[in-house]
Amino acid sequence: MKNISLLLVFTMLFTFVACGEKTEKKEEKKIKLEKKEPEAEVKKDTDTELIALGKKLFKDKTCTTCHLVDSKVIGPSIKDINKIYAEQNADIVAFLKDELEPIVDTNPGQVAIMKANLDGFVKDLNDKELQAIKAYMLSVN
Ligand code: HEC
User: pTM, whole model, 2 decimals?
Assistant: First the structure.
């Protein structure tokens, strides 16, 4: 009888400890999850900021004169550019830095118009500005 009660006590003790560990682990997980969220928020905020800057630059730097969101005017629409850049896994910033041949419209007359911009004023934009323009263009769906 004594042995049985001892066994019972041990079993209870063990269950108790095991349960305790589980709750601890759960707590740890919770903390990790909670920690992750603010980081994601910050990233979202920087994205929104970058897109806003890009949108402003796209207008101020006259890109809007030749590139509309949906339809072709002088240059291809932003949506057409996005589609082809996604298909070919190409980088808009690389094109704007004149490190990538045109892939959207390769008609020499058209290429010359855009090339004049690259050589004229796009070359004076810094990396952050170019990243912002790209972020804005990609945000257009
Ligand atoms: C005077 C008109 C004009 C302006 C201003 C202009 N573009 Fe263009 N853009 C074009 C034409 C035309 C093409 C088509 C030729 C080509 O694809 O290279 C083009 C093509 C592009 C392409 C696709 C390149 C490819 O791979 O074929 C991108 C990206 C682009 N422009 C971004 C911009 C940005 C960003 C600005 C502003 C900083 C801008 N453009 C200003 C006329 C213009």
Answer: 0.78
